[in-house]
Specification:
Elements: E1 15-20, E2 25-30, H1 39-53, E3 60-63, E4 66-73, E5 76-83, H2 88-105, H3 112-117, H4 119-129, E6 130-131, E7 134-135, H5 140-146, H6 158-188
Antiparallel strand pairs: 1-2, 1-5, 3-4, 4-5, 6-7
Length: 189
């Protein structure tokens, strides 16, 4: 084996990002801290990628030593980035899983407004597919099941969890207040 050959690695994905049709970032996750360490470098990279890809019908490009697979839908652009030596089919499997999972969660309404309204679910989907650059899942159905989204149900969002906790705290406070009142009246009698 030649000393310059790359060793196989589970760290397949360098970044995932979603841009709107103006090239503005809606979501981004960078898994290699050495790739683009600052926010400014990340945004410059995303702008370069967008400028190269937004008017083409291709699904793959190479830029700045990176393999980039991408897909567009209405007013969104989805990107999965890997190293120059990365298998494009692996990256494409991640991209397709991301898109199909979001398609199910957003009820076939994969567009900017819907994506922004369901951002908590979008982050959950990305985290179920890739963790730290390692591909965890490439089956959209499994991803949707794991993030607990059903076609007929509303997603369990952080806000609904927070509301549930707030309601429980309010109920507990009311019970404690009532108990204090009963103790106070029983002592005063």
């Amino acid at each position: 084996m030649e000393s310059g050959a790359l060793q196989p690695s589970l760290y397949t994905v360098k970044a995932i990002f979603i841009l709107d049709n103006d090239g503005n970032r809606l979501l981004s996750k960078y898994y290699d801290p050495e790739l683009y360490p600052s926010m400014k470098e990340q945004k410059n990279f995303e702008k370069n990628v967008f400028n190269k890809t937004h008017k083409t019908d291709n699904e793959i490009t190479f830029l700045e030593g990176m393999t980039i697979v991408y897909k567009s839908s209405i007013d969104l652009f989805f990107y999965v980035v890997g190293s120059a030596q990365e298998n494009e089919l692996m990256l494409m499997a991640v991209l397709n899983c991301l898109f199909e999972s979001l398609n199910q969660i957003l009820r076939k309404n994969v567009e900017r407004r819907s994506l922004l309204d369901n951002m908590d679910g979008v982050f959950l989907v990305v985290d179920e597919i890739v963790d730290g650059g390692v591909i965890l899942e490439s089956d959209p159905q499994q991803v949707v099941e794991k993030v607990n989204f059903k076609a007929d149900d509303n997603p369990l969002s952080e806000q609904s969890v927070a509301q549930h906790i707030t309601e429980k705290l309010a109920l507990t406070t009311n019970v404690l207040q009532s108990a204090k009142e009963q103790i106070k009246w029983s002592i005063l009698k």
